[in-house]
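Subject: Sanity check before I submit

Could someone independently write out the structure tokens for this chain? I want to compare against mine line by line before I put it in a report. The sequence has 138 residues.
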Amino acid sequence: MSAEQLLGFAEADAATIVADLEAGIGTLTRLAPAAVDATVVVVEPTLRSIDVGRRAVSVAEEQSQGQVVIVANKVADEQDRIRIIEAFGERPLVVVPADTAVDAADRLGISPLDHEPSAPAVAAIKGLIELLGLDTAL
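---
Independent answer below. Compare away.
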């Protein structure tokens, strides 16, 4: 099922849908204007990822796709964090640090939340949930 089809089934105020969509801007360009309340753009601190992220932000804002939040993923150090801030300015930002607990959970085939609930990356994702105003009973 495509993102467009999924959103078509959801009633305007009756559902919270969190979807991990394909990388790039294709899905955003196909959504009807103002189809979502928030757009979370996940970027890594690489030039290619930042470039695609900037295009995604531009499309989301042009299409009025709700609040745009940047998630900087796999941030290893202060330079990575600064690179993301410089690229995306004053937009809301959640920094998810590079975290060996995530890698370990992936190797075990379980979620990082189940593997190590106190891991820094898990705490950052909880911060994203709060920022979006979603249920924080994790």
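---
OP: Matches mine. For the report I'm noting this point. The CA atoms of residues 84 and 137 lie 29 Å apart.
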